[in-house]
Amino acid sequence: xxxxxxxxxxxxxxxxxxxxxxxxxxxxxxxxxxxxxxxxxxxxxxxxxxxxxxxxxxxxxxxxxxxxxxxxxxxxxxxxxxxxxxxxxxxxxxxxxxxxxxxxxxxxxxxxxxxxxxxxxxxxxxxxxxxxxxxxxxxxxxxxxxxxxxxxxxxxxxxxxxxxxxxxxxxxxxxxxxxxxxxxxxxxxxxxxxxx
Length: 196
Prior knowledge:
Blueprint: H1 3-11, H2 13-27, H3 31-47, H4 49-55, H5 62-76, H6 80-91, H7 98-112, E1 116-122, H8 128-142, E2 146-152, E3 159-164, E4 167-172, H9 173-195
Helix pairs in contact: 1-2, 2-6, 2-7, 3-7, 5-6
């Protein structure tokens, strides 16, 4: 990713949140733990949609919201920096950009470690042998220091997507279905034109 793209990424709203979190994590020496906390929270909310609705809504007052997040943070083992951060994101009604914040945080962490960050998106949690195979392919293709992060996105239906600062490979079933639909629409248009 070029310098201008990084500048835009880090000055966006999600970038400013991620940058503040990164600075705090660096001061507290818990950068990797914060990334792990993002993943724990993501996995927890995938399993309990009702908890997500409650903990990210405006239904609770600030005191109750803090208490609920404190209990969840203790249950999931959040580091204090991440717990404080996530509470602030929710209070500011910015939880809708949490995935973007996580992505920018990953980019910042990779840049700090002088490595490229690659995110592998799949419809379900991948098995260890699947992750191992994907990692070998990525290392062989890019031939550089890499941090690989895994994330579940049910919207892709199947297959995987690979994303990094300057790389976006979509081998998902959803993408293939869109391409197929586009092809059939173009064929139908050609057929309609030829009929007239």
